[in-house]
Amino acid sequence: MTNKERMLSSKLYVANDPELRKDFKHSRILTRLFNNTTEEQMDYRKELLGKLFGSVGDHVYMEPPFHTDYGINTTIGKNFYANYDCIFIDVGRITIGDNVMFGPRVGLYTAGHPIDPTVRIEGYEYGYPITIGDNVWIGGNAVINPGVTIGNNVVIGSGSIVTHDIPDNVVAVGNPCHVLREINDDDKQKWEAQKQAYIAEMTSN
């Protein structure tokens, strides 16, 4: 088993490997090109993201700057938005569903290092995958740690440190991140009423 295969299988591996260095350099080139684009180069940005990630759905928008280790180990669904300074450390696979929004400086960190200092300084690493479901909003400066799965229809509060799985249909906040409450019909009624009020105001002008 190669170091790349070990890395993607959540086994201990060594990052100083020719195949991984090649993939890493490829990602660095594409992210540098992406981060240097202007607002007049939206088609070029889309092209670069298509080359960078394992797969990308329709209507994916990321604000530069953005940083990732490999890119190819990340898949993104349709209707995705990431604000400034997001970081994807994808030594483990990152899977992002449809209709997902990230605030600024959201970090997805699949990588880990041995607790034992002797093994750690010898260059051994590991990575556990991160999975994010559909219709998720993650607030600014939130950190998603290795091995975490976030369910569908979830809101993660800004500044949260997510160390454990989060179930569907909840608001979760804090360090460590915990479920604050379920999302319910009261939320739907409140925001639907505000939307209808907006529509009525705008159509009356």
Automatic annotation (TrEMBL):
Signal peptide annotation: none
The record, for InterPro entries, names: Hexapep, Hexapep_transf_CS, LacA-like, Mac_dom, Trimer_LpxA-like_sf
Give the EC number(s) under which this enzyme is classified: 2.3.1.-
**CDD domains cross-referenced by the UniProt entry:** LbH_MAT_GAT (cd03357)
**What positions does the domain Maltose/galactoside acetyltransferase occupy?**
4-58
**GO molecular function annotations of the record:** galactoside O-acetyltransferase activity
Q: What keywords were assigned to this record?
A: Acyltransferase, Repeat, Transferase
Recorded coiled-coil stretches = none
Keyword Acyltransferase in annotation: yes
Record bears the keyword Transferase: yes
Top-level taxonomic group: Bacteria
Family of the protein in this entry: Belongs to the transferase hexapeptide repeat family.
Q: What is this protein called?
A: Acetyltransferase
Species of provenance? Pediococcus parvulus
